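User: Hi! I'm a student and our assignment asks us to look at how structure tokens line up with a sequence. Could you show me two examples?

Assistant: Happy to help. In each example below, the sequence comes first and the structure tokens follow. Example one:
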Amino acid sequence: MICNWTLSLSGVFPSARASSGDRAAQHNASAVCSGSSRSKMAGAEGDDSLYPIAVLIDELRNEDVQLRLNSIKKLSTIALALGVERTRTELLPFLTDTIYDEDEVLLALAEQLGSFTVLVGGPEFVHCLLPPLESLATVEETVVRDKAVESLRKISQEHSPVDLEVHFVPLVKRLASGDWFTSRTSACGLFGVCYPRVSSTVKAEIRQHFRTLCSDDTPMVRRAASSKLGEFAKVLELDYVKSDIIPLFTALASDEQDSVRLLAVEAGVSIAALLPQEDLEDLVMPTLRQAAEDKSWRVRYMVADKFSELQKAVGPEITKNDLVPAFQNLLKDCEAEVRTAAANKVKVFCESLPEDSRETIIMTHILPCVKYPEVRLNIISNLDCVNEVIGIRQLSQSLLPAIVELAEDAKWRVRLAIIEYMPLLAGQLGVEFFDEKLNSLCMAWLIDHVYAIREAATCNLMKLVEKFGAEWAQNTIVPKVLGMANDSNYLHRMTTLFCINALSEVCGQEITTKHMLPVVLKMSTDQVANVRFNVARCLQKIGPVLDSSALQAEVKPVLEKLATDQDMDVKYFALEAISGMYLFNLPTYIFSETFSFSSILFFFFSFSLSP
């Protein structure tokens, strides 16, 4: 058997010739097969070590895609078994000739080859990896090309300057001059890694190739060049940045395709960081101002998204003169996506403004733009950070109108969002300001026509009590909540019960027993059945807060009465409360003469269906 596996190891690559050492190994293997039993046993031991490698090699040519993929993922194991010479002379040519495969197999191959330097003999022979990776960099599937370029960038660092010019740069030139756009897009990602380590003559050729790709007829190539413009600029000498990169940046930022223009914006940020301050206004800012007003919202979105990086690159003077007006326009943009992206940068933008003019710029230019609900909510969600920048006095005066307007916004989701931020507002503005300006808003939400708002307002009250304390609740919130128990709208009366459910947990036993419980007990005679069964549920909820004397003397009689109610739901929840609080022996109680036979059946039927 070993003779067959040894042959499969050496004969799987038909395009490569076996070396004299390989032929000797095959001859010895044949001798083993026909030798003594001791030799056969020795062969069997070698057999075990070679078999897995033989299987992996065989799977490279298997018709099953999954088997080929598994074998590719273990390519390093095959290379180790073959040795560095046979990996270079047999395995790599075989892989180069079989590039036409399923995309997932090619993706795995491109990834593996990026870590193959040691397996081909080290940096001296790393150029042997270029042919298969060059082929992979030209395939149609984008993810495969990107992975091949990533591996090429990785192994470029392992080339000596001489090998870089002899082997790597010619590859880049071939890709850049390829007939298919796929190869030209791949070339764009390779200029930056080879440029710093080549001679001046070769550098000039590389710059020329990059200029050609920036004006390519195919939008996909221009897009790739635009995405790498900033990276390429970072490795160029400053004079060439001004003479070569700036014209390319201007051209790409004016391209007919918005996908090219938006990528040029990102490059512009990188270029701005490379230039001295005195050159920025003339060379970069006109193009960036144009991008901030581009007809495509996607380009304006990119400007907004990169605004803090741009602000850092251009410095305080240009920020004050150019970026503040541009930022104002982005905050007022007609597209919600652009406004949202700009709003996300408000905190960082304000923090980075010059200290001597920060407050003036914020109050005069930024806050008036905070008009749209999404933008204002974003400001409020970062209120603690905004407070650090402009101070609580300015914050309270400037944001109060926005808060009030949001609290009454026609869209209930906006109202819901501001409710969720109310505890944060309360913490920043303080109890006195809250009582004076915002308390009425919180109470108004309790009678909102949308249930989700009323529910959120109830939870909001609980969080406010946790922040300001039970004494504040007793003097401020509780009287207003209990006053709603007499409202003509039964939904508002039910909201009173929901508030008591939440507030009893944070107000404690004394306030619950003295102030809340009497109101709940009084509501047990409400004409609306929905209110009465919510009274039963409320009593069950606040039961653990009450002491045993109140439960027996006040709660128990009311639940007994509700348990005989004509409404089936009221009866059900009363019995559930009785059972949940263990006020008395329920089985004995329900079989007393207080209950009719139908009530007993209803009780057992209801509890058999309850979870």
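Example two works the same way, sequence first and then tokens:
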Amino acid sequence: MEKSNSSRIEAQAVQALAEWKALFAEQVAVKAKELSQKSGSAGVITLGHYRQAATIAVQTLATAVQGTDSSDGRQEAA
């Protein structure tokens, strides 16, 4: 019998990944806008703002990932 190269992914893992992806994207957008406003160029968000925002968002994402219960993939209660 030929082995398949496909992998099965638990629904909980897919859900957690989707939540992390959404959190990261939201944090980058929010932080880039804040950085733009603080720099005095409100209304113009630069690549530099996005780079800096992504660095900050990575920290938020890491905290969210670490706060995920490994048994069910959901965030633990605070």
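Here is something you could point out in your write-up. DSSP finds two helices and no strands in the chain.
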